[in-house]
Design a protein that fits this description.
By secondary structure, the protein is α/β, with parallel strands linked by helices. It has one domain: TIM Barrel (Alpha-Beta Barrel). Helix content is about 35%, strand content about 30%. It is built from 10 helices and 12 strands. It has an 8-stranded parallel barrel with strand order 1-4-5-6-7-10-11-12, surrounded by 6 helices. The longest helix has 11 residues. The protein is globular, with a radius of gyration of 16 Å.
Length: about 250
């Protein structure tokens, strides 16, 4: 069995780490370079860095900040926000990212997934899916969750996998920041239908939530932000708990 991964997420706005609830009400959570180093030292398996306003502000992720973070850590590092072209990916990989995450650009032009996967390999391409339940149906949202689309989440997940995405980062906007638990049912549905890893995001509030998303949710990795940023749960303690619960996890 593949080991499950614990992934802290650094949501970046104006060069600072921020965290909100349901994608709004953002508050400052610290310096991203300092946080990245702490998480790397504590045993996080990977990091995700998302410039959450890059697409909205029509600007590119700050490559300089990516370089600083990459130099501070020794674990895989995914970068997202405002990435729309092969050239964007080249810049970020050269700056020190191991993978890139695309969302809005993939919805606007699905063919860019194929193009990026051919150019860099599927292992470098993560497609982020921000999803919200609308009258009982899960729909994809773009532009940092601000724009609803007519894409049904499960169908889009299958399409991005078919186009060459190496991984899906699935964020439930309904659960984001609530600390009420992950969207296990939706995560399990997508994970069971696909052959590529699914990272669950949105809703982590305590250690049993991670156990639930790995068991009931069938997630390959679990991503969280505020509970790590504000020291509510330590990564070493979380890993110890999961190992004690019989979850295959990297020590």
């Amino acid at each position: 069995m593949l080991t499950k991964r614990i992934i802290p997420c650094l949501d970046i706005k104006d060069g600072r780490t921020v965290k909100g609830v349901n994608f709004v009400q953002l508050r400052d959570a610290g310096d991203p370079v300092e946080l990245a180093k702490i998480y790397s030292d504590e045993g996080a398996d990977e990091l995700v860095f998302l410039d959450i306003t890059a697409t909205v502000d029509k600007r590119k992720t700050l490559a300089e900040l990516v370089t600083k973070v990459a130099k501070a850590i020794n674990i895989p590092f995914t970068v997202g926000g405002g990435i729309s072209t092969v050239e964007d990916v080249k810049v970020l990989l050269a700056a020190g990212a191991d993978k890139i995450s695309i969302n809005s650009a993939a919805v606007k032009n699905p063919g860019v997934i194929d193009e990026m996967a051919r150019e860099f390999g599927s292992q470098c391409i993560v497609v982020a899916i921000d999803t919200r339940d609308v009258d009982g149906i899960d729909f994809v949202h773009t532009h940092g969750g601000r724009k609803p689309t007519l894409l049904k989440t499960q169908e889009w997940a299958r399409e991005v996998a078919d186009r060459g995405a190496g991984e899906i980062l699935l964020t439930s906007m309904d659960h984001d920041g609530t600390k009420a638990g992950f969207a296990n049912e939706l995560t399990a549905e997508i994970s069971s239908a696909l052959s590529i890893p699914v990272i669950a995001s949105g809703g982590a509030g305590n250690m049993p939530h991670f156990k639930d998303v790995f068991t009931f949710g069938k997630a390959d990795a679990a991503l969280a932000a505020s509970i790590f940023h504000f020291k509510e749960i330590g990564i070493p303690e979380l890993k110890g708990y999961l190992i004690g619960e019989g979850i295959s996890i990297r020590k």
